[in-house]
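Write out the 3D structure for:
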Amino acid sequence: MKKLLVLLFSILISSSSYAEWKYVTTGTSGNDYYIDYQSIKKNNGYYYYYALTDLLEPDKDGDLSYSAYRKVDCKVFRTFSLSEFYYSKNMGKGKLTNNPNKNPEWRYPAPGSMTQRMISELCDYVK
């Protein structure tokens, strides 16, 4: 079982590191947001994909980017972060610093938020 978890974790990191990030938008804080359209999969009515946030300035831990593997419900317009990976350099490069996916839950984005824009982009793409 432990070997399986290590293999799965390695695949997730590899998928994130070698993703083909396509620019979606820049937020008001100057951060850039990307989606790996090649990673999109559909299962039981949900869409799964990788997203990347490239930070203009380092966060409080000194990270410059993070990627997330997300599950999206386009019918109800909500998202669930399955895993998150933080990197010391931009565009998911550099040292993998942590994986703080604490207490994951469905999130319903606020109107006009960056999360809403990302979900809209994904759901429009898969239509």
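Strands lie at 22-26, 32-43, 46-54, 65-73, 78-87, 96-98.
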